[in-house]
Known about the structure:
Elements: H1 3-18, H2 21-26, E1 28-35, E2 41-43, H3 45-58, E3 59-70, E4 76-87, E5 101-113, E6 116-124, H4 126-132
Parallel strand pairs: 1-6
Antiparallel strand pairs: 1-2, 3-4, 4-5, 5-6
Amino acid sequence: MNQKTINLIEQYYAAFNGGDMDTFLNLLTDDVIHDINQGKREIGKEAFKQFMACMNFNYKEQLVDMVIMATPDGTRAASEFVVLGKYLKSDEGLPDAKGQEYRLPAGAFFEVRDGKVARITNYYNLQDWIAQVGG
């Protein structure tokens, strides 16, 4: 496993958990690809910034029980974790938010280029989340 890539992904998640969006976004390439769970693909750091602004408005989340793996050459990584969250504001097309708490197993795949995250693909079970928040 490539420790440099593992450290990058650890920094990425530490910035997320700490709410440090400047550091979080600085770990991405300008042309970052973001494959949204059961959604569309977005490209570019600005699109990712807008996505995170929406997420941070609607949800409060911490990621725990993190396991990170990387290929020997450091160009790919994967993580498995648990999302501990609170649904703060209703998100379009989803159940109404009433401050519901949830615990959701999740995972992500990364492509790394020039020491930055060039692609992030997140996976979790949306139906499990909907059941937990009362949808």
